Task: structure prediction
Amino acid sequence: MFSAHTKTNPQQKQLNNSKTWVAIVIVHALTLCATMLTPTHASAQEDLRRFKLLKSEELSPEQAKLAQSIRSGPRSSTGSTATQENAPLGSPFNVWLRSPEIGDSIQKLGSQIRFNSSLPARLNEFAILITAQYWGAQYEWFAHHRLAMKAGLNPDVAEAVKNNKRPLNMAAEEAAVYDFSTELHLTHFVSDKTYQQALGLFGEKGVTDLIAVNGYYDLVSMTLNVDRTPVPAN
Result:
């Protein structure tokens, strides 16, 4: 015998499909987090890197030109392990070497956002940490946590972000950066209240620079996560 055919409501079918996709995304996210948080030997982490580090003798002329541009720019004064002389260029730059023309445009944009923003370094680095935490980009957090501390960000504020909590006792400017950046990442929009809060403190130029730092470090975090860039052993 054949079972009776039951007509499925299109809206119910769409809801069921949505629930299925949400479940898949949650399982994938939990698996990724478990993998990232499992302690591993440094060499084992390095083996997970997808884009192998390129030695200077392996670089094409275009790649060598990009590497030199990065090393001779303002990043050289930050103590970044990614720009050390006589060593392979670290990520995300190591990945961008594979496409030197795009890589050069990206690194120039990043240099402008990091070193010429109208936002104070403390707030710029705060936005970077928020973005790193949103993406689960461990290397990004490692690289910029010390810079945020050097710029004067309260360690308790960074620790709260690390633990997915809204920091207490933030200055007004920090609260504006936190609300704007978090809302933009989580909802992909910014409410009128949050926008006006940032506009009143930073002006249109500052709001534009805040959008830029969040967007640029989205790209950086995506690059690092795809590469599976390991955090240094120490």
Remarks:
- Confidence is low (pLDDT under 50) at residues 1-8, 10-41.
